[in-house]
Input
Amino acid sequence: MENSNKVLLGSLAVVIMGAFAISSAMAHQGDYSKQGPTYSPERHTAMTEAMDSNNYEAWRELMTDRGRITQVINADNFEQFAEARRLAHNGDLEGADDIRKELGLRTRNGEKVGAGYGEKQGRGRMNLR
Output
């Protein structure tokens, strides 16, 4: 009986730790102002240098296999994207969100805009400009 209690407690601990890890990994999604699960000081420094110098190629190398953003941000719009980061870093989150909306990226509050989020695919909001 004692061994089965240990196994049960061990299993429960694994489940709890797994749930915590998943919730921690999901916490940043939708809020670009929070650190994600792949954050490291070294990568952050390299990313900051790439953004501050408007170095698209360095940013692209750091972003290999990082999802939708690499399909949206390109050499032509990278300077705008870097400006959104600078605005957010300096506390102008509304300005950063405006640029992110224009680029078709998720905003700080999780709002999804642009192709890949339903728009321009027969779903989502209509652009009435």
Observations:
- The CA atoms of residues 12 and 69 lie 37 Å apart.
- DSSP finds six helices and no strands in the chain.
- The two ends are 70 Å apart (CA to CA).
- Residues 19-27, 115-129 have pLDDT under 50 and may be disordered.
